[in-house]
Design brief:
By secondary structure, the chain is mostly helical. It has one domain. Helices cover 75% and strands 0% of the residues. The chain is built from 7 helices and no strands. Helix 1 packs antiparallel against helix 3 (46-63), helix 3 packs across helix 7 and helix 4 (71-100) packs antiparallel against helix 7 (130-156). The protein is elongated. Keywords: Membrane, Transmembrane, Transmembrane helix.
């Protein structure tokens, strides 16, 4: 378990920051009166999400690999973080949906029908619900986490600095 301590730490940090982001969105009114802007502004979470992966992979490189980490080692580490975040995603979504902002789904269902994105409340409710968001969260955590890791590791990996004579 000690081998995975850094990945577990950063996965938990990621989940906590995600929950804090949801609180911020709610406080700013993006789950209520300003819900029309939610679709766009929620994507700003990519900034802290990418930054957390940079910090996590640098932490793994420094603490576990003594400052030298290959691309593949980092890719494995980031994938492990992504899998843990994905595994915690249904719980995270439950906290968001039922504790932080239980009014989000009713509000977004109503507004999406008003704007004509869906013809009926039933059709909107089939998309905007806990089960669908929990499933999206699992898939999204895996896909975006691994993709982010693949890109971040291009910069974080140790470069081969052998000098040829």
């Amino acid at each position: 378990m000690k081998v995975l301590a850094i990945e577990i730490k950063w996965a938990v940090i990621f989940v906590v920051v995600s929950l804090l982001w949801m609180v911020l969105e709610k406080v700013c009114g993006l789950h209520g009166p300003y819900i029309d802007y939610h679709l766009y502004l929620t994507n700003l979470f990519a900034i802290p999400a990418i930054w957390m992966f940079v910090l996590a992979l640098k932490d793994k490189k420094r603490r576990y690999y003594n400052g030298h980490m290959t691309y593949v080692q980092g890719l494995v580490s980031g994938t492990i973080i992504s899998v843990i975040v994905a595994a915690l995603s249904p719980l995270t979504q439950w906290v968001v949906s039922y504790v932080i902002t239980p009014e989000y789904f009713p509000n977004v269902i109503k507004r999406s029908v008003e704007l004509g994105y869906y013809e009926t409340t039933t059709a909107a409710a089939a998309y905007f619900n806990y089960k669908h968001y929990a499933t999206q969260g699992i898939i999204g955590a895996l896909v975006t986490g691994i993709a982010t890791t693949a890109i971040v590791m291009l910069f974080v990996r140790s470069k081969n600095r052998t000098v040829k004579q």
